[in-house]
Amino acid sequence: MYYFFLISYTILGAGIKYIDEAFDEKIFNKKNALVLAPIFGVLWAFTMLINPVSATILLAVLCGVFFKGKIDNLAHLAGFIIIMALIVIGGVEIMIIPLIFLGISAFIDEVGNDIIDKYKSRLNDNNYLHNFLIKFFDHRWFMKTAILVMVIIGIIPILFFLAMVFFDYSYLAVRIYSKNKQRKIDSLKNIRSYKVCNAISSAIVIKSTTSDVSNES
């Protein structure tokens, strides 16, 4: 069962970012994202229903993205509706106080991440504090730190801290893959543009040369 949570959280983190990139950046296929969204929703709900700690953490994540307005496309909405329907029908068990604490932490992560994205160009990577803040909120460490505090005081098993690390870094891995794919696409576009411009220039030169020869004749 321990391995299930690590695998499940990894899939869910990667799945969220796959859907983001499909709708926001148009890197992946939207139809595939729409097909996968209900599957991720069922997996998310199941991972909540089988363990109250997992339910608390994943519901906190949902609260953070919901209240920050991050459920902003059809696939995310479909997944969210499926999750909520299944956990209501299944009767999910939640730890109330940790949920409030972690829900606020997840919301702060989302706010911090948005601020970093907005002002990243003004921050200096060589400045230790700036670099720390970029990494801390870009990698969403506020909630993971909150989970680690709960691990230390004995409320949450360390397994779920590790699962959340897998969740966030699989999310980041998909983002890196997406950016690399975008660079390749841009590179191919530039090569094609260069070839087209080169072909046009060559045609103009040939036409000009032909015209000059005709005039000389």
How would the blueprint of this fold be written?
Blueprint: H1 2-25, H2 30-49, H3 52-67, H4 74-90, H5 96-119, H6 128-138, H7 141-152, H8 158-216
Helix pairs in contact: 1-2, 1-8, 2-3, 2-4, 3-5, 5-6, 5-7, 7-8
Order of helices and strands: HHHHHHHH
CA(first)-CA(last) distance: 88 Å
- Helical element count? 8
Number of strands: 0
Largest sheet: none
Number of domains: 1
Shape: globular
- Any idea what the radius of gyration is? 24 Å
Mean pLDDT: 87
Structural class: mainly alpha
Strand content: under 5%
Descriptive account of the structure:
By secondary structure, the protein is an all-alpha fold. The chain has eight helices and no strands. It has helices spanning 2-25, 30-49, 52-67, 74-90, 96-119, 128-138, 141-152, 158-216. The longest helix is centred in the C-terminal third of the chain and has 59 residues, at 158-216. The termini are far apart. The model has no long low-confidence stretch (mean pLDDT 87).
Brief account:
By secondary structure, this protein is mainly α. Helices cover 84% and strands 0% of the residues.
Which keywords apply here?
217 residues; mainly alpha; 0% strand; globular
